[in-house]
Design brief:
Elements (H helix, E strand, L loop, with lengths): L3 E2 L10 E2 L3 E6 L5 H12 L2 E3 L14 E2 L2 E2 L6 E5 L2 H12 L11 H6 L2 E4 L9 E4 L2 H17 L4 E5 H6 L1 H11 L44 H8 L1 H10 L2 H6 L5 H8 L2 H9 L3
Parallel strand pairs: 3-4, 3-7, 7-10
Antiparallel strand pairs: 1-2, 5-6, 8-9
Helix pairs in contact: 7-11
């Protein structure tokens, strides 16, 4: 892939000599900022988020004649399992920032889902989907379709990134065809504190109250307990099997059934928020 990457296509990003540039994409709270932190620190690559198109946006079918344009950069796509992911969106929606609030969890899961760009002013660039699951489906289906078109797209599961970051970095280094592959036996240190959201235009804000980084917040069992099995089933009915497979989650429905415990069943009886 070379050591000098022209990033002028689709947005006029700067060119940096000697560095591989990598586009990182994923839905909000899927681990894009963690990926940026680890790839820059351990692989020494430059991360591009929003130049050309939005890192959280469904990939646009940009064309040049019959050819699909993707910005001439390799793309690393982060995903979190849909149950944990959509629960985290519900929490974020209560801040009325990137997502529009929508009552309790039950209504949030089944009613139209609006997504706003997080760096435009006055934040009026919006997208609407049939439901949160519809956004999850469309985003990752589009990224898989881009991969199937021949574009350099590599999927990474957030759960694996936090449980075995060295192995993930090794796989990414091979995808990028770096001169020296990352040794999966190396010790990789995750950040001590939660990372602030960032983009290519504004510096990440440092929260006044730094919280410890907690990988367990993305654990499926914890998410099931918090939302209850009834709400989890609403998500699972709306998620496409082909998209689950594309993100490396074949058999996810069975995994959910096996992860459900008494606490999740009880939560279904008493309701959630």
């Amino acid at each position: 892939m070379g050591t000098i990457v022209d990033m002028s296509t689709l947005g006029g990003a700067r060119e940096r000599s000697g560095n591989i540039a990598v586009r990182v994409m994923g839905t909000p709270r899927s681990g894009t900022n963690l990926a940026k932190y680890l790839l820059e620190r351990y692989l020494g690559v430059q991360i591009v988020f929003d130049n050309g198109f939005w890192k959280h946006g469904v990939f646009p079918a940009l064309m040049n004649g019959r050819d699909i344009q993707y910005g001439d950069l390799p793309i690393v796509v982060l995903s979190k399992d849909p149950v944990s992911q959509i629960l985290s969106w519900f929490r974020l929606a209560r801040n009325d920032t990137i997502f529009k609030p929508n009552g309790n969890l039950g209504s949030f899961l089944t009613q139209p889902f609006e997504v706003r760009q997080d760096f435009t002013e006055p934040k009026r660039m919006e997208y609407r989907f049939h439901s949160p699951a519809d956004y999850w489906n469309q985003f990752y289906f589009a990224m898989d379709a881009l991969r199937r078109s021949g574009a350099p797209v590599h999927f990474v599961r957030y759960e694996q990134l936090v449980s075995d970051p060295a192995d993930c970095l090794g796989s990414i280094s091979r995808f990028l065809d770096l001169a020296s592959f990352f040794d999966a036996r190396r010790v990789v240190a995750l950040p001590r504190h939660t990372l602030g959201a960032s983009n290519d235009f504004d510096a990440a804000e440092s929260p006044a109250d730094e919280r410890a980084f907690d990988p367990a917040r993305a654990e499926l069992t914890s998410a099931l307990v918090r939302m209850g099995w009834r709400n989890a089933r609403t998500i699972l009915r709306a998620i496409d099997d082909d998209v689950l497979d594309a993100t490396g989650r074949a058999g996810f429905r069975q995994t959910c059934r096996e992860a459900v415990g008494p606490a999740a069943m009880l939560r279904s009886l008493v309701g959630f928020w």
